[in-house]
Amino acid sequence: MRIKRNNPKTFPNNKMKQAGESQLQRIIRKTGRKPSQCKCKLCQQQCHTPCLGTPQDILRLAKAGYADRLALSEWAAGILLGCTDHIIYMIQPISEGDHCTFFHDGLCELHDKGLKPTEGRLSHHSTQLDNWRPRKSISYNVAKEWEAEDNEPVIRELLGELSKVQTKIQQANDQDRMDQPRVESRFGLH
Ligand code: SF4
After folding, report:
1. Is residue 176 part of a domain?
2. What is the pTM of this model?
3. What is residue 189's DSSP assignment?
4. CB 36, CB 119: distance < 8 Å
5. How many domains, in total, are found in the chain?
6. Is any ligand 1 atom within 6 A of the Cβ of residue 116?
7. pLDDT per residue over 21-35, tens digit each?
8. 175 inside domain
9. pLDDT score of 38
10. Coil, strand or helix: which one is 70?
11. Which domain holds residue 109?
12. pLDDT of residue 187
């Protein structure tokens, strides 16, 4: 069997190049997808379920004043796809009614603000690759960012932002939506 080895001359450079990547750049590299802006009916249908954002995406949303439209989310699709053997916990936009909370009259409220989560930015109706190669899917690669060690500071900062709306949510008798100790334990943060 032929063993693939890293080229000692190029491997360090590649590693350095990858270390400087943003979460979005890392996902573009791994999935081979590019940002798209299609507004067709098929693409709109994807907004029945909120698209997935990386920790950086969701932190940007929280800082922009949308913290009360985010909630703990459990991503189990990876188990069905054979990508993971466990649920991945994330913070993501909530659903309201039949659609994502940010979907209005066929448009994404976040699009013009440059705040659309990564899955929504890279997704396109013509995408077929997910059916055949789940590990190349956008959703899997976004979900993995929530378990990446180098994203822990971002997740901590995000939970800090969310704790600011905690009182408001408790007053609304909606404690399950964002119960802080429960959320922190899901990310292994204490
Ligand atoms: S955030 Fe925007 S693109 Fe993503 S599901 Fe919601 S409305 Fe659609």
Report:
1. no
2. 0.80
3. -
4. no
5. 1
6. yes
7. 888 899 999 988 888
8. no
9. 75
10. strand
11. 23-162
12. 80
